[in-house]
Amino acid sequence: MNRPLRPADTSFAHLIRQKNLIDGQWVGADDGSSFDVTDPATGEVVATVPNAGTDETRRAIDAAHAAFPAYSTMPLGQRVALMRKLHDAILDNLEPMAAMMTAEQGKPLAEARAEVASSAAYVLWFAEEARRTDGAVIPSPVAGRKLMTTRHPVGVVAAITPWNFPSSMLARKLGPALAAGCTVIVKPASATPLSALVWGHLAEQCGFPPGVVNIVTGSARAIGAEITSNPKVRKITFTGSTEIGKQLLAEASGTVKRMSMELGGNAPFIVFDDADLDAAIDGAIIAKFRNAGQTCVCTNRLFVQAGIYDRFVERFAARVSALKVAPGNEDGAEQGPLVDTQALDKIEELVADALSKGGDLVAGGAPHARGGLFYQPTVIAGATPDMRVTTEEIFGPVAPVYRFETESDVIASANDTEYGLACYAYTRDLARMFRLQDQLEYGLIGINEVLIVMPEIPFGGLKESGLGKEGSWQGINDYLETKYTCIGGL
Ligand code: ADP
To answer: What is the rounded CA–CA span in Å between residue 468 and residue 401?
Structure first.
């Protein structure tokens, strides 16, 4: 069923699934239509997957709904054992899953490996958390009553995931959903459906019953409309743009679903005069250029204090210019291609806008000599608030650097956005660290550290960056309902 792949990609050919998983069956779209998944580094077709729509989605929802009673009452020990098997299966397939992700998404192989490992870690974390979804016995203020709470899976969950982390974003949703006893329909991003489809294959191999995990690829609008309007779907968990998130919130209001939203960001990265400059530059490189700048926690705005500004810009620009831009599967690749031509066009527009408003180009600033979807890692010094990069999510390898004078000024600038996902600051002043913690309006705060996300922590944005938390003990809460019971007449 697989089309021939170019030789370099045979390491994962056996994992490619070119069908949708509905009720335990691998099926094509009803009308037989499909679309290609291409490698952004080469433009070559990696696979072809079904272009499903409303009817297929409805059947997937029906399957999840039918599977729910048995799955939600499966003994907890058995459910946990299935989750642990899934964790092991992901690790056993780490190398081909990483190679597949690099082929469909473009990120350097080292980043893809880390993402697959992190996906397994989320599954294990939630397998463990499933054992701790206990309720409470509430002391009764009146005689003859027992008051208690119990927790129950919400029901059928729809997970809509983005292309930038095609595996770990799914892990953060499938992990808690399956652990809580929910059944799931997954709608992966059309650019990167293969990493999601392989989860269906592994879930099936591990023994999750048919209908517990369903995966539908195709028209976002048609699939999304069915998910938001179908009363059998009790919860939607979405990671993607704020624009689509708002649309889903509005569409789902008709059936009052539980909603979890991981939306856009506009992360500030603040370097104070007293910072460890080497550490700040290392952090800025990772926080800006990981995944070619295409993450919602990527630095959008670099604010550097006046006393250290010139040294920072000079050294940062030198490091950025030396980054190795190459296909993700090439040795030593540090920045891969952008995901598609719209992304490349947007980056070109943002850079042109910043330069037309007086930005000082100190690194990059043009498509890369490799051609295609490769863009040079770019630094624009002398950035100003009127530039589009100040307010728009860049989602690419462009770093605008702003100069600031005082702590209060930079906190005001950092907070001057409707977003509130991640922020970073470098300083050695302990009192300032706590002021930043109090005053920065962000859900994730990294001080002298940028790789701050792991299963143990509650990932989630404030303001228009989202609703709910993924990871930590809180991450399973959104997949559980609390019932309160009063037993009287005792
Ligand atoms: P990104 O900028 O990361 O592509 P999007 O919000 O456009 O963010 O996409 C995130 C996910 O939401 C993808 O799986 C995409 O296909 C899906 N999506 C886009 N539009 C809709 C829609 N109208 N309804 C449901 N899902 C959608």
So the answer is: 31
pLDDT for 86 beyond 80: yes
Q: Say if ligand 1 is within 6 A of residue 240 CB.
A: yes
296, 423, 464, 470: the catalytic one is: 296
Q: Alpha-carbon distance 476 to 173, whole Å?
A: 9
Closest by CA to 248, choosing from 388, 77, 461, 238, is 238
Long-range pairs for 30-39 at CB < 8 Å and ≥24 separation? Answer: 30/55, 30/56, 35/190, 35/217, 35/218, 37/104, 37/191, 37/192, 37/193, 37/194, 38/104, 39/103, 39/104, 39/106
Token pair of 185 as six digits: 């329909």
Number of H helices, E strands in the chain: 14, 22
Per the CB < 8 A criterion, the answer to whether 208 and 174 are in contact is: no
Q: What is the pLDDT of residues 354-390, one digit of tens each?
A: 999 999 999 999 999 999 999 999 999 999 999 999 9
214 lines ligand 1 (CB under 6 A): no
